[in-house]
């Protein structure tokens, strides 16, 4: 799959751009985590979207190959995507939940693993968040929508 803008042809520039977007996503998640600006889990995300959708700056939907056959999860994703589109919240799909868990330090206190199928990034309560990596993700999402790719897919590379 090739994601591109009108200025970027497919090929090396597109590959470099995707690497840049993957890195930007990792930077945003890493910066948001210690600020308490991450909501993890399909149910928790739905509650947060219902209470304060204007505070959400990014929605990340994550799957692995076995999740594709989970009809209930796909229905949840469809509803979350529709809500995010209606409320102008950027959405990304991510493959490689193991890498996402590494980025988010994927274990709750007490050793219980987290539901990483849906991750919301919100603004810190004190201010509007201005982050170059978040701006890059927003631009990528906007460019993808211009190409009729409403929910772009990012493959997080292994480390």
TrEMBL record:
Coiled coil: none
GO biological process, alphabetically ordered: DNA damage response; regulation of cell cycle
GO cellular component, one term: nucleus
Compartments it resides in: Nucleus
Keyword list, A-Z: Cell cycle, DNA damage, Growth arrest, Nucleus, Phosphoprotein
Domain annotation Ribosomal protein eL8/eL30/eS12/Gadd45: ranges: 24-104
This protein's record includes keyword Zinc-finger: no
PANTHER family: GROWTH ARREST AND DNA DAMAGE-INDUCIBLE PROTEIN GADD45, GROWTH ARREST AND DNA DAMAGE-INDUCIBLE PROTEIN GADD45 ALPHA
Recorded family membership: Belongs to the GADD45 family.
Designated name of the protein: Growth arrest and DNA damage-inducible protein GADD45 alpha
Source organism of the structure: Cirrhinus molitorella (mud carp)
């Amino acid at each position: 799959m090739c994601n591109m803008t009108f200025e970027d042809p497919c090929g090396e520039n597109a590959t470099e751009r995707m690497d840049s977007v993957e890195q930007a996503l990792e930077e945003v998640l890493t910066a948001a985590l210690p600020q308490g600006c991450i909501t993890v889990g399909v149910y928790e995300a739905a509650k947060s979207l219902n209470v304060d959708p204007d505070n959400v700056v990014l929605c990340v939907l994550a799957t692995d190959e076995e999740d594709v056959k989970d009809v209930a999860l796909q229905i949840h994703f469809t509803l979350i995507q529709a809500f995010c589109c209606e409320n102008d919240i950027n959405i990304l799909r991510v493959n490689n939940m193991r890498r996402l868990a590494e980025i988010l330090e994927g274990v709750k206190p007490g050793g219980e693993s987290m539901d990483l199928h849906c991750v919301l990034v919100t603004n810190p309560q004190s201010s509007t968040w201005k982050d170059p990596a978040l701006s890059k993700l927003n631009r990528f999402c906007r460019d993808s929508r211009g190409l009729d790719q409403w929910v772009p897919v990012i493959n997080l590379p292994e480390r």
